[in-house]
Amino acid sequence: MADDYGGVIGAFPYAFRASDSWLFRSYVVLGGLVTVAVGLLFVTAVIGVIAGTTGGRGGNLTLSRSFFAVVGLFVVVPLVAPVLFVARRHRRREGVADRYDAALGLTGYLFVASLYVGLVISVPPGQQTATTGALAPVVETLYGLPQFAGVVPPLAVSALILLCHRRLR
């Protein structure tokens, strides 16, 4: 059991050591860094919301605090899911398709990209900047979508992560 991991944090080095896929190993590094960054972002956001709403009564203020925590979970869970799935597979020595690790690494990268696309879609019109370059038409199209559509790309890729896990195991 020396190779066994202990919890979510221990799953990252364990999955990195256990996998033969370089694509997945690179996602373990990037996914870990992005997860830490997103976690710090949401912790500071919750602190800011609590500081801004101190002295107020419960009700809507308590709901907004809880909303930050729920959104944080909806972002962090799909970031760590590929790592946890692969670590679990190797720990249990389950027979799965040869491309399982690489496919989950790829879906992890797709989720990170979908977060960026979702953020671009949800930028308020007053904060949108003029775009230039080769990707200008793409960014302008994303700016033109309704802000609420920003949740669609991460949700779709989250479902793809789960589908890939179910299909290839």
Automatic annotation (TrEMBL):
InterPro entries: DUF8056 (IPR058369). This is DUF8056 domain-containing protein. Residues 1-169 form the DUF8056 domain. It comes from the Archaea. The chain crosses the membrane at residues 27-54, 66-87, 99-123, 143-164. Pfam families: DUF8056. Keywords: Membrane, Transmembrane, Transmembrane helix. The keyword Signal does not apply.
